[in-house]
Amino acid sequence: MGAEQSRKALGKVGALLESSLTGILNTHRSLGLNFSFGHPEPSQTNMQNPRINLFLYEALFDPSMKNFQPESDVPPALWFVLKYLITAFDKNGKSDSTDAHELMGEAVSALHELSFMQLTISTEQALGINPEPLKITMDDVTHDLLSKIMQGSDEKYRFSLGFQVRPVMIAPAKDRLSSLLVGVDYTAAPPTIIGEKGVQIPVIPSMGPAVESVEPRTIEPEDTIEVVGTGLNGGDIVAVLGDAELSFTMQQPDRARCVARTASLSAAALSAGMLPFCVARKLPNGRLRRGEPVAVNLRPVVTSVSYVAGGAPGVQGTLTLHGKLLGKPTDDVMVALCVGTTAIRVFDIATPGPGQTSLAVTLSSTSPVPAGEYLVVFRCNSQQARAGLKVSIA
Question: Which residues does 62 contact at the CB level (< 8 Å), separation at least 6?
């Protein structure tokens, strides 16, 4: 059974359809039908028997089989999806009569019964090399498609149904790929046996560990981060949040855990906001080979709020926030004084303290904040602190 026989596969599928339908419709159901192939047109000769017409109107390359290679030492094969129209004609050559519609029902029932096609002796050589069974599935055929196909000598619309046969394989005609023997130096004349000196296993190094998921995606300083991915174990593997290196507290090949230590975040001078998180391998030269990053939100923390009235002329008082990651001079910070869910006053200008541990907001006496108790809402680089603390302004 040579691969060259598979070149006839497109035609042999039609022959297999005819023989299979003949076996069901004529032998088992005794309908006495004739079969024809080609454009669905009335017969040019007087037929005494009704007729089933098969028309191969389209052949597509099968995308689901594109990367399937039956054998590793041969070039890839061609895989097709064959799309057919089936049209029934009564004994008078009409396709729009009730008799023709009854025949259509018989035909599609036979196709449904076939499902996985059994090869015959005449089709075995061309189709038997295919490692996948040929499957018949009914196909939707729109009115627009039928109208285009039916353009012919009489341009008459004919009732038809569609089905497809897949996957049809045409095997490569090239010889099998082969490699030279291991342990033989073929550059020498004559070739020389060199034994284990010819055994070489080139290994391409991994591009680094990869992160598939991170939980939680919004963190605060001292929170634990759970990482799922590949290549996460090893003493040279570190987690990187922004520019901060985080040491792992637990490592497995596909799962690891690290902590966003305040000291590490401060050492890297990170600000709150959306930051890239990845897992990296430390190279001997000290550089990091980083994997694909995922976004992690680093949230500021407000631990206390105080208000001191008065101060310099024109100043109503000073509102001071204490916590972590409260912003640097270049960060976008916002402090809002709220009553319930309503913001009474919003401040976009603040004075950060050293180490991002404090933030001072000056309240002007030219536009004083009414006395009362307020909920303080703080954001840094669009990340809002979880705690909303209350402060009294007199």
Answer: 79, 80, 81, 166, 167, 168
Residue 309, both tokens? 């009235």
DSSP string, 113-125: HHSBPPP-TTTHH
Q: For CA atoms 269, 272, 274, 279, give the dihedral sign.
A: positive
Fold of 3-170: STM4215-like (3.30.2000)
Q: How far apart are the first and last CA of the chain?
A: 97
Q: Is 277 left (phi over 0), alpha (psi -120 to 50) or beta?
A: beta
Give the burial class of 51: count Cβ atoms within 10 A of its Cβ; 0-12 exposed, 13-18 middle, 19 or more buried.
buried
> If you ran DSSP here, which 8-state letter would residue 29 be given?
T
How is the chain split into domains, by residue range?
A: 3-170, 210-298, 301-393
Residue found by looking up tokens 């919003």 in the block: 346
CA dihedral 234, 236, 242, 244 (to 10 degrees): 110
What would the pLDDT profile of 88-119 be if each residue is shown by its tens digit? 998 888 888 999 999 999 999 999 888 888 88
Domains 210-298 and 301-393 in one fold: yes
Neighbours of 182 (CB within 10 A): 11
Q: List, in order, residues 6 or more apart from 287 with CB less than 8 Å away.
A: none
Q: What is the topology classification, in CATH, of domain 301-393?
A: Immunoglobulin-like (2.60.40)
pLDDT in tens, 229-253: 888 888 888 899 999 999 889 998 8
Tokens of 304: 């206390």
The fourth-level CATH superfamily of domain 210-298 is Immunoglobulins (2.60.40.10)
Query: Would you state the structure tokens that stand for residue 51, as one six-digit string?
Result: 């007729």
pLDDT category of residue 194 using cuts at 50, 70 and 90: confident
Q: pLDDT over 70 for what percent of the chain?
A: 91
Beta bridge pairs of residue 279 = 239
List, in order, residues 6 or more apart from 23 with CB less than 8 Å away. Answer: none
Q: Which amino acid is at 367?
A: S
pLDDT (0 to 100) of residue 1? 46
> CA 89 from chain center: how many Å?
46
Question: Omega of the bond prior to 253 within 30 degrees of 0, cis?
Answer: no
